[in-house]
């Protein structure tokens, strides 16, 4: 089995969830490599599960280094498109684990919400333009920015002012770049899933809550104590376990999403994804975004989550689950089912 696996290496960009991806790959018998900028080279060199560290000085060189690993499968994560940009990612010639066609959907908030809505998943109200706003909203930028630039607004005037400020700062080109979304009050729960094309099974793999600055710092202060605009930049993740009665609905949403992606974004969902949700006091799950690849919240579960143990009864991080699927695909001569 190992002699088959060694014909293919696993590589990824050094950031986001690269440590668990490469750690999991090594546990499944793969050779590993990380492509990172020179400032982080020393950091990744300390880990013995990383066989090769390839350092670049500029972003264009990063694509060349990725393509130089001709015997590798690249595992994408949230930093891939955000760091390299879609145009450079399109120049990647080696196999990518998962469906590379979903990157363009993930980077466009309007297409992203369309995909959720047509999956019959409950989503927040979306407003086409600032003048339509009649309640508290959150305005979001495109791409995997970890919440950077997002802002809350109480009315149409605040929405217009916030968008104009983003345009002045050149964060966006026009108001069409953002999405204006009803702000749902409840508990955030980010439901992590893995869709196995080999087993044709959707596995619930874990749940996390994002730790955001400065909104999570402000809520610890008495109301009105300090006048600071809240921001939503993700700096960490907190583990969560949902009450079991919520899981069937989350699973139903995930399976409906998988079926819809298969139809609208061929060849469909492959591997990890996340339904980023709010659970209301009525027990409703409202999904406000999705991630079509591994999310950083899975870093909490390097030794497996409470849910992954139910499937595998062994330590199974999302990184290792990716490589387990890749290994089984190679062994069964089905690598084209898990890569694009």
TrEMBL record:
Pfam families: DUF1246, DUF1297
Domain ATP-grasp: 100-331
Binding-site list for ATP: 212
Entry annotated with the keyword Magnesium: yes
Leader sequence residues: none
Reactions performed catalytically: 5-amino-1-(5-phospho-beta-D-ribosyl)imidazole-4-carboxamide + formate + ATP = 5-formamido-1-(5-phospho-D-ribosyl)imidazole-4-carboxamide + ADP + phosphate
Domain of life per record: Archaea
Pathway: Purine metabolism; IMP biosynthesis via de novo pathway; 5-formamido-1-(5-phospho-D-ribosyl)imidazole-4-carboxamide from 5-amino-1-(5-phospho-D-ribosyl)imidazole-4-carboxamide (formate route): step 1/1
GO BP, one annotated term: 'de novo' IMP biosynthetic process
Keyword Magnesium attributed: yes
Keywords: ATP-binding, Ligase, Magnesium, Manganese, Metal-binding, Nucleotide-binding, Purine biosynthesis
Cofactor or coenzyme needed: Mn(2+); Mg(2+)
Enzyme category, top tier: ligase
EC number: 6.3.4.23
A molecular function GO annotation: ATP binding
Residues annotated to bind 5-amino-1-(5-phospho-beta-D-ribosyl)imidazole-4-carboxamide: 16, 79, 237
NCBIfam families (alphabetical): PRK13278.1-1 (NF009778)
Function, as annotated: Catalyzes the ATP- and formate-dependent formylation of 5-aminoimidazole-4-carboxamide-1-beta-d-ribofuranosyl 5'-monophosphate (AICAR) to 5-formaminoimidazole-4-carboxamide-1-beta-d-ribofuranosyl 5'-monophosphate (FAICAR) in the absence of folates.
PANTHER family xref list: 5-FORMAMINOIMIDAZOLE-4-CARBOXAMIDE-1-(BETA)-D-RIBOFURANOSYL 5'-MONOPHOSPHATE SYNTHETASE (PTHR38147:SF2), 5-FORMAMINOIMIDAZOLE-4-CARBOXAMIDE-1-(BETA)-D-RIBOFURANOSYL 5'-MONOPHOSPHATE SYNTHETASE-RELATED (PTHR38147)
Name this polypeptide is given: 5-formaminoimidazole-4-carboxamide-1-(beta)-D-ribofuranosyl 5'-monophosphate synthetase
Organism: Sulfuracidifex metallicus DSM 6482 = JCM 9184
Name of the gene this protein is made from: purP
């Amino acid at each position: 089995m190992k002699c088959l696996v060694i014909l293919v290496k696993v590589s990824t960009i050094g950031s986001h969830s690269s440590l668990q991806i490469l750690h999991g790959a090594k546990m499944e018998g793969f050779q590993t490599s990380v492509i990172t900028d020179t400032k982080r080279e020393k950091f990744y060199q300390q880990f013995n599960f990383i066989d090769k560290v390839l350092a670049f000085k500029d972003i264009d060189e990063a694509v060349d280094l990725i393509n130089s690993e001709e015997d590798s499968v690249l595992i994408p994560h949230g930093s891939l498109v955000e760091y390299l940009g879609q145009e450079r990612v399109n120049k990647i010639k080696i196999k990518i684990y998962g469906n590379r066609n979903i990157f363009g959907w993930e980077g466009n908030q309007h297409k992203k919400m369309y995909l959720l809505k047509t999956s019959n998943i409950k989503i927040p109200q979306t407003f086409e333009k600032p003048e339509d706003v009649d309640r508290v909203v959150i305005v979001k930028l495109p791409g995997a920015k970890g919440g950077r630039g997002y802002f809350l607004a109480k009315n149409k005037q605040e929405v217009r002012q916030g968008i104009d400020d983003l345009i002045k700062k050149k964060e966006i080109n026009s108001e069409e770049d953002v999405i204006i979304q009803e702000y749902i009050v409840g508990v955030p729960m980010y439901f992590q899933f893995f869709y196995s094309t080999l087993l044709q099974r959707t596995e619930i793999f874990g749940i996390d809550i994002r730790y955001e600055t400065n909104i999570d710092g402000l809520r610890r202060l008495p109301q009105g104590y300090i006048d600071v605009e809240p921001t939503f930049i993700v700096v960490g993740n907190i583990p969560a376990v949902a009450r079991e009665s919520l899981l069937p609905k989350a699973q139903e949403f995930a399976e409906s999403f998988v079926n819809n992606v298969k139809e609208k974004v061929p060849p469909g969902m492959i591997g990890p994804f996340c339904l980023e949700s709010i659970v209301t006091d009525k027990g409703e799950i409202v999904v406000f975004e999705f991630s079509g690849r591994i999310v950083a919240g899975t870093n909490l579960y390097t030794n497996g989550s409470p849910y992954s143990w139910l499937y595998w009864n062994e330590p199974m991080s999302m990184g290792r689950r990716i490589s387990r699927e890749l290994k089984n695909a190679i062994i069964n001569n089905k690598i084209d089912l898990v890569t694009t």
